[in-house]
Amino acid sequence: LFLGIITGVFFLSGILIYLFKHHPIPISAFIFGIIFATFLSFIRLIKNKRIGDYIYLLVSLIVSISITQLNSFSIESNLIYLFFCSAIAASAMILPGISGAMIFLIFGIYNEILSVVQNSVKILFNFNIEDFISIYSKVISISLGIIFGLKVFSRFVVWLFNYNKRKTWLILTGLVGG
């Protein structure tokens, strides 16, 4: 999973930057379509809907919409901040409908993350020890944050499914919808 994420980030970050810069509406519409189709398929998976189910859907829908309305923080990033933001973003990536990139935007480090990804490859070809240490200390901090977030939060989601699968499924569906 981690190797797939890293490979995707390195190979697709430049393409995504280009698409969002030059074709923001079509790429946004494409992503919206994928999420909307996921939401509809999740709704279909919930059988025998009851009144209480709609409360879980509505509350999680409101939470998800509220998250998208948050303004980005303007905090100076350091290695610890990058670690914790990455852990939270990785946790969000486990949940369908909540984008890790959106979490990075909210925390005000999305552009820094993309810059670190792009520069981590460039620095290998134009080697400078000071730049290498600066970039790769961030790469390590972000990577450790992602690993930590995935390990901890995935266990939490598994526990939720074991505790009450139906309610967890309803909440995840609402998050996707938001």
Short descriptors:
178 residues, mainly alpha
Number of strands: 0
Rg, please? 18 Å
**Which class best fits the helix and strand makeup?**
mainly alpha
Helical content class: over 70%
Q: Please work out how many helical segments DSSP would assign.
A: 8
Distance between the termini: 26 Å
H and E order: HHHHHHHH
The pLDDT mean sits at 83
Can you summarize the main beta sheet? none
Strand percentage lies at under 5%
Which residues sit in consecutive blocks of at least 5 with pLDDT less than 50?
A: none
- Per the principal axes of the C-alpha atoms, what is the gross shape? globular
Description:
By secondary structure, the protein is an all-alpha fold. It is built from eight helices and no strands. The protein has helices spanning 2-22, 24-45, 51-68, 79-94, 100-106, 110-125, 129-163, 165-177. Helix 3 packs across helix 8 (165-177), helix 4 (79-94) packs antiparallel against helix 5 (100-106) and helix 7 crosses helix 8 (165-177). The longest helix is centred in the last third of the chain and has 35 residues, at 129-163. The mean pLDDT is 83.
Summarize the structure.
The chain is an all-alpha fold.
What's the layout of helices and strands?
Blueprint: H1 2-22, H2 24-45, H3 51-68, H4 79-94, H5 100-106, H6 110-125, H7 129-163, H8 165-177
Helix pairs in contact: 1-2, 1-6, 2-8, 3-8, 4-5, 4-7, 6-7, 7-8
